[in-house]
Write a structure and sequence with these properties.
5 helices, alpha+beta, 161 residues
Length: 161
């Protein structure tokens, strides 16, 4: 089995993160191409049940008292829930999902795009209000970790698919 290559890309046109980029928030976008057709529910399920994400689910359940189970992931993927652990659904389209954290400071975004040879999985984030809240130093200090962790999360989800 080949390892999925993770690539940093500009936000694709029509991305739910575009409005945050346009207002000057930090945004990023990573992509991985996988064989076969993958719809958004399958991607959401693979992402939030991945080996890389499960420790974060546990940590949020323990530290933030916002647990999430595989059943919660299934409800989120099916569009049957607007809440998932520390996030709420901010926007959803047939091919995209954007979650907002409980403090309103970050967004997590997933998107699928069909390709002639399979599906492109996108994962990105937006960080808002960092400057006004005095968080710029902390954000910049953690940016390297964020970039690495984003790649690990996407790779883990892509491997599940």
């Amino acid at each position: 089995m080949t390892r999925p290559a993770i690539t940093a890309l500009p936000l694709p046109a029509g991305s739910l993160l575009e409005r945050y980029r346009d207002m000057g928030a930090f945004t990023d976008c990573y992509a991985a191409d996988v064989a076969g057709a993958v719809d958004l529910p399958a991607y959401v399920t693979a992402f939030y049940n991945s080996a890389a994400f499960r420790p974060e689910r546990w940590l949020l359940g323990w530290a933030a008292k916002r647990p999430a189970t595989a059943a919660d992931v299934a409800r989120l993927a099916a569009g049957a829930s607007e809440r998932f652990s520390a996030w709420t659904v901010e926007a959803r389209t047939p091919d995209q999902l954007m979650l907002c954290d409980f403090q309103g400071r970050t967004r997590s975004w997933l998107m699928v795009r069909p390709l002639a040879t399979g599906t492109r999985l996108h994962f990105g984030s937006a960080v808002v209000l960092a400057e006004r809240r005095g968080d710029a130093f902390v954000f910049n200090a953690l940016l390297g970790f964020h970039r690495l962790y984003s790649r690990i999360l996407l790779k883990s989800a892509a491997k599940r698919l």
